[in-house]
Write a structure and sequence with these properties.
2 domains, Four Helix Bundle (Hemerythrin (Met), subunit A), paralog of FGE (formylglycine-generating enzyme), single chain, 10 helices, alpha+beta, globular
Length: 452
């Protein structure tokens, strides 16, 4: 792709260029931390057919940056060749399913890291003189923000791979903040009166890096509903297990029952009974559920979340209800960027950026609550919603159909809110994640809802 302009673009303002460079470097530091934590044998091993070998992610991140940034945004009418155009076919995520990636003639870890370093050097050099040139990719630095988000998405994926590793563990992080209100909040709900709000975004102002499936903004009418004040906790989920939750057919959908029966599931991923008590394994460390009872349950699939909601006499929220709760200000009627207002996330408001490597106890972030008192809608765990994946009215794919459009209408269910593994650059309340209802290697939890 070439520019249709013959004059050099105007440079981005210094503040924007610094921010874009910082976002790229922040993502790369986390990539390096997750890959430097293990040896090359662990990097090239496939720890689960659901995940790529870690060194595939390293080179794929670089290839995406090479393809969309280096080859399309350099100076002049023709930015010129990329760093490695000969390997595009190996790192195309759409045409190469994860289970088969180890069989490809991939770059080895040394080559993958060198490729990433070479591409990033070119990208930062391009950024120094880059600016708007009439192409949407270049508006407000969109392509640089897109690349930073893409790397952070793979950073979370690599973290999930670390959770599945069977070899030596090497990830450490400080514990999350404590909560004095966990037992008070768990199992309580907040009534939302319903009304009209603006869902999604047009990608203007601070939301300029919003991806295509978040657009365009549109008005939505919402009926009254009740929503849990906090995500369902480990302690609450353990009571579901102890009440025979995985053996009671009446609690499960037909598809959910078939799946847990075929797979032999009897508890969330990483949970097991040890000496009569539930334990979980988190990045190689086994711990009693009683010690983390106030944390949101994590690593449950949609079917498990739905069965729990049925057991509790409730249901899962829709995607519309979730975003309404996260963004609607009932006092002013205004649609806000975040549950707490319009200011960006801080460590006091949300558990993001792999800061703690586990969910925080419910109620640990009072500064991040909504005006009505709903907590932890951003960070900690992705929350399953009982909605399929479709484009919004007026959706247009950009910059490629394979990011969103090809997945519309499938058997996917939506996940909203971000997890502790998500980078802040990705953590919008308009951000839409999706996955198959059987997936639970992701950092997924849920909260319940009901009609009001």
């Amino acid at each position: 792709m070439t520019s249709d302009l013959s004059t050099p673009p105007t440079r981005y303002p210094d503040e924007l260029r610094r921010r874009l460079a910082d976002e790229l470097r922040t993502a790369r530091r986390r990539t390096q931390a997750l890959t430097d934590a293990v040896d090359d044998a662990e990097l090239t091993r496939q720890h689960s057919p659901l995940m790529s070998p870690l060194h595939w992610d390293v080179a794929h991140i670089a290839n995406m940056e090479d393809f969309w940034l280096v080859r399309r945004t350099g100076p002049g009418e023709d930015p010129g060749p990329g760093v490695r155009e000969d390997i595009d076919h190996l790192y195309d995520a759409f045409t190469n399913p994860r289970s088969g990636r180890p069989d490809l003639p991939l770059l080895d870890p040394v080559e993958a890291r060198a490729y990433g370093a070479a591409v990033r050097e070119r990208a930062l050099a391009i950024l120094e003189d880059a600016g708007p040139d009439g192409r949407r990719l270049m508006d407000e630095g969109f392509v640089f923000g897109m690349i930073a988000q893409h790397e952070q998405q793979h950073v979370e994926t690599m973290l999930a791979t670390h959770q599945l590793r069977l070899g030596p563990k090497a990830l450490h992080a400080p514990p999350p903040p404590a909560s004095s209100r966990a037992r008070e909040l768990a199992g309580t709900e907040v009534l939302h009166p319903g009304g009209t709000f603006t869902m999604g975004t047009d990608g203007t102002g601070p939301d300029v890096y919003a991806l295509d499936n978040e657009r365009p903004a549109h008005r939505v009418e919402v009926a009254p509903f009740g929503l849990d004040a906090v995500p369902v906790t480990n302690g609450e989920y353990a009571r579901f297990l102890d009440d025979g939750g995985y053996t009671r057919r009446e609690l499960w959908s037909e598809a959910g029952w078939a799946h847990i029966t075929d797979e032999g599931w009897t508890a969330p991923m990483t949970w097991e009974r040890v000496d009569g008590a539930w334990h979980r394994t988190s990045f190689g460390a086994r711990e009693p559920i009683a010690e983390v009872a106030d944390q949101p349950v994590v690593h449950v699939c949609f079917h498990e979340a739905l069965a729990y909601a049925t057991w509790a006499g409730r249901r899962l929220p829709t995607e519309v209800e979730w975003e309404y709760a996260a963004r609607h200000d009932p006092t002013t009627g205004r649609t806000r960027r975040w549950p707490w207002g319009d200011d960006d996330p801080t460590p006091e408001r949300a558990n993001l950026d792999q800061r703690h490597l586990q969910p925080a106890p419910v109620g640990a972030y009072p500064a991040g609550a909504t005006p009505l008192g709903v907590h932890q809608l951003v960070g900690d765990v992705w929350e399953w919603c009982d909605s399929g994946f479709e484009g919004y009215p007026g959706f247009a794919p950009f910059p490629y159909k394979e990011y969103s459009e090809v997945f519309f209408g499938g058997d996917f269910r939506m996940l909203r809110g971000s997890s502790f593994g998500v980078g802040t650059v990705n953590a919008r309340t308009t951000f839409r994640n999706w996955d198959l209802p059987i997936r639970r290697q992701i950092f997924s939890g849920f909260r319940c809802a009901r009609d009001a």
